[in-house]
Amino acid sequence: MTRLSRIIRAAALASTRSARSFRHFSGNNLTYAAVTLVFFLDPGAAVFLLILAAIILFLPSSSDPLAAIPGERLHLWPLTQWQLVALRIVGPLLNPLTWLLIVGLLWKRILWSLWLFAAAFFLTGFIGSHFRIHSLWVPRIPAGRLTHMLRKDLRQMVTALDFYCALLISVPAAWLRLTGQLPPAAHVPLTGLIVIIMSTIPLTLFGLESSAIIRYRIWPISIRWPIASKGLAYLLLMLLLTIHLSPMAALSAGFASLAFGQRIATRHIAPQHPWSFRTSAPFARGMTQMLVALAGFAVSTQVDPLCIFPCIIVYTLSLARIGTDMLTCD
Question: What does the alpha-carbon distance between residue 104 and residue 111 come to, in Å, rounded to a whole number?
Fold first, then answer.
């Protein structure tokens, strides 16, 4: 029994550490936008943004705590058959969402259809946590010497929950657009919302590669190429998310966001975790990044779509300056 309790405590500790890594998104621009909307006396919109984040976080939060234990190691431990059965029964109870579902089942005010939907979603995350994805497949996009770096950067960026939060808006909007139910007046606001959700990523371009700057500096190429590859990956995702809405405005915001964010990303590397929301600190940096992205978005929607060209020029100058700085910095 002592042996079994130690395994349960270790699984609970590993699950808590893993959950903490992707539930911590207080430094995400989505949170800053929600706080700003509260101050602007629009709590409904703030709640909407937080609900989007909660929906995205629900699936990874539903993972099986025992999934943190490698299967081959579990079979090597001297456990009896009944201990393995007991471990399998107790395992789901280590997840707090299991207890929430039990409470929801006993609470008569919750509709059965809503409870079954939440339970099915939880079961999907619980079973899916046992499948190991060694690497995500992304298409090979011809981009000259950036081809392989671009594919690697796309693979890293699609592990950000920010992208899936934006997909939660983009996919239904695409369906409504195809069926003719999305009014043209909704294109710009939905694009602006996607811009806000994705605006944290340029601040964390090297978050999954903490030693990348040193490695890239010893490569026989300019440091500008890896940074340009990450920027191109970000712009491609922005185009994918908004091509059925207002792509020019989204790209304007993307160039403006990269112009400010990539300088921060190369000088202040904030370590990130895959399958979590991107986070940056301090507050002033994230808020400035969001305002810069919205400024690029606003000039394209309120002035002229051709304002994308000044955004491209500012981005290019920023990239050139970063290259010079990074080649000489310590």
Answer: 9
